[in-house]
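Methods — Computational structure assignment.
A single polypeptide chain was analysed. Its primary sequence is given first, followed by the predicted tertiary structure written as structure tokens.
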Amino acid sequence: ARPGDRRDPARPRRGDALTDTLALLAAIHEADLEAVRAVGRILPEVAHAADEIAARLDAGGKWINAGAGTSGRLGVLDASELPPTFGVPPRLVTGIVAGGSEALVHAVEGAEDDEAQGAEDVKMAGVTARDVVLGIAASGATPYVAGALRWGKGIGALAVALVGVPGSRLASIADLALVVETGPEVLRGSTRMKAGTAQKLVLNMLSTAVMARRGLVWRGEMVAMRPTNAKLKRRAIDILGRLLALPPEPAERLLVKADWELPLALVSERWSLPLEKAREWIAARNGNVARALEEE
């Protein structure tokens, strides 16, 4: 303290980024912006990975996210959101996390160090040569994820690494490496922060781009979403109304008639087809709703 300064030297002072709440939040916010910029630098690689993943799914494969801690939880989160958003089967994209389901809500210490368990969990998920294994780890070195990637690649699955360190172990194992260099954390070593933010951004981009490539997005709308509750039913009515210029009441009647199958309602109304013919039209395009809406 300066001479004459009677304040307690241990008391937080405004302007100290580690003790002043607003300054700390500003530092975290700036770090998150760095994460956004880091993701922007690898967009070509993310686009290439999305195209490759979509091709595997189109050929009958499935997609597994594998990670530990924050990375594993983010992989499970993104996978779990795809069925309601894009109407895909729950088994098409799934997530596995070191330590199993308990690790989704509690830290399971040491689980990330078990490389053999990573391989076993991917094996138990039924991964085949047609599939995709996406390993997520900020350090690029997590043994559990290395085991998952190595086993998947060994049987011919597409191995993709989402990491934060160039030249890492996981990047060397993978067929495709997405390296998001976010740099040091505000809270040193806490990769749940901007490294986790970057992972969430990339996972959102990948899954959305893959589903768009598979025809589940049309004119910026989620045309295959599943209206499984009141909120989502209202959203389906809105989507039908926006895309086909229908007032809410006729849109709702059409969806009820189609048993709330949004793709069916859209194709039926757009081409004035009976519902069964609309179903056949979508099936003939392998479930590609965008194609079914574009091809008269």
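Note: Strands lie at 63-67, 93-97, 132-137, 158-163, 176-179.
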